Amino acid sequence: MSATPFGAWATSLLATHPRQPDQRSCGASVLVVERALRDEDYARWLTEDASRFGSEALGTHGRTTRAVTAAGRLQLPWPRALGTPPWAVAGELTASTGRRWGFRTILRREPAWEALVAAVEAGSPSPLYVGSRWIPRHVVLTVGASDTAIQCYEPGSGRVLSVTREAFLDATFRLAGWTKPWFVVVPA
Fold first, then answer.
1. What is the DSSP string of the chain?
2. pLDDT digits (tens, 9 = 90+) for 132-171
3. Structure pTM?
4. What is the total count of domains within the chain?
5. I need a surface site. Which of 93, 168, 172, 182 has the fewest CB within 10 A?
């Protein structure tokens, strides 16, 4: 893994293994961790009380599935029971970072791999949607990258797991039981 652009607080936060509070909040949990990787004070605040992570994730999930974004723009409302859609994750990241983010459907895996590696190396941990052959089911956060592997925060277990380039390109990795990459959310 390349040296991450995140400080010691990031290591401390990830060492607490923050887990999504329910079966539908993986995308929101990823957004909470992403913010904490950029904001040392927020990360420390989260680690002071274990219940804060779950509360923040649930609040973020509610905000990202409603009809109005964090920036006050209209978005397609989404049933919370279906998780967090990629356009809402991109909108939340745009609002919180001040940079424009977008989501890309993965039609070819090589460009998606390159986009994830480039984003992380530039200091932008990036969400990755994974699922089955038929449907996206889970969101992870790419927090480390090199030419040969990415490291993903997996909110179901709260752990950082490694995915090799070969496994990503062949869709033979396993992240929370899912093997197919569906979408990347990266700075535009």
1. -PPPS--HHHHHHHHT----SSTT-HHHHHHHHHHHHH-HHHHHHHHHSHHHHHHHHHHHHHHHTSSB-TTS-B-----GGG---HHHHHHHHHHHHSS-EEEEE-SSHHHHHHHHHHHHHTT--EEEEEE-SS-EEEEEEEEEE-SSEEEEEETTTTEEEEEEHHHHHHT---BTTB-EEEEEEEE-
2. 999 999 999 999 999 999 999 999 999 999 999 999 999 9
3. 0.93
4. 1
5. 172
